[in-house]
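Case 270 in the screening queue. Each case pairs one protein sequence with one candidate compound; here the compound is A1CAB. For every case the pipeline is the same: read the inputs, emit a complex structure as tokens, and attach any notable structural observations.

Predict complex for case 270.
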Amino acid sequence: MHDLGLIGLGNMGRALTDGFLANGALTPPQLAVFTRTEEKAQDYAATTGCTAVASLAELVNSSSALLAAVKPYQMHEALSAALDGVTESKLVISVAAGVTCDTLSASAGANHRIVRVMPNTPSLIGAGASSITAGPNATEDDLAFVEKLFSSVGICVTVPEDKIHAVIGVSGSAPAYVYTFIEALADGGVVQGLSRADSLKLAAQTVLGAARMVQESGDHPAVLRDAVASPGGTTIAAIHSLEQSGLRAAVIDAAAAAANRSREMSRPSN
Ligand SMILES: NC(=O)C1=CN([C@@H]2O[C@H](COP(=O)(O)OP(=O)(O)OC[C@H]3O[C@@H](n4cnc5c(N)ncnc54)[C@H](OP(=O)(O)O)[C@@H]3O)[C@@H](O)[C@H]2O)C=CC1
Ligand SMILES: O=C(O)[C@@H]1CCC=N1
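Case 270 output:
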């Protein structure tokens, strides 16, 4: 019996299972994978040493817990097909945005145990940020298992279900905003005459370094910012420009846009 059966070997599913294997939360024999395109699962199994299975039924029969990482609109079809007629209670972990615990339970069947996780793709390199939410029938052991998996690929917080929208705004979707910021910062260096390669290297390392300063110093970001901004110097000129362009409001609005889209996706008609 495998400890985890992955449904959906896409961007998020693969980032997670790669991370679980690389960080030792699972060994290859503990993991089985099933995805719509069979060759993808076979290639993944050949690379990692895990087991590729050819059907959802085989995955369910050979796994004590399932990690469902298909698109939100594919979730009902995948879970109902996987668990139709399965009487033994299975742990079902979903990472889908906008698919509620009640909807997951209705698709999977009321006897199964539901946990929702909102991860992000840096899990692939052990630098993920995830939230965990207990759904119907989830036990303390289930939550401990999920916490063990996801804390192996980054940090975890536990939130009630109505806070998952906010988590999507702040971390689930947010790597994409940060990539956009890094790209723009590198563009700024290119405008000022740096090579693209040097500028991207400096921009990415600066974002990484600043994030680590926030985490490791425990100081408020404003305190760290003041330590960079000399009176009458270059940094305060740049901060003035960012504030005039509305960077702070733009970022708050971006998190709200993601959270609101998640709320919209969670409504029954979507
Ligand atoms: N991408 C991200 O940053 C994040 C995504 N999420 C959530 O993760 C989920 C997956 O997103 P993402 O990885 O980006 O999407 P992808 O489209 O990259 O991956 C979805 C995968 O599911 C497979 N699939 C679809 N239907 C089925 C089925 N019935 N049975 C088995 N496999 C199936 C696809 O098949 P095939 O193998 O043929 O391509 C594909 O590999 C979403 O619900 C999303 O909300 C959550 C947080 C962050
Ligand atoms: O864009 C999306 O809908 C998914 C959910 C969070 C990140 N990616």
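Case 270 observations:
- The first strand starts at residue 4 and ends at 7.
- The domain at 4-165 is CATH 3.40.50.720 (Rossmann fold).
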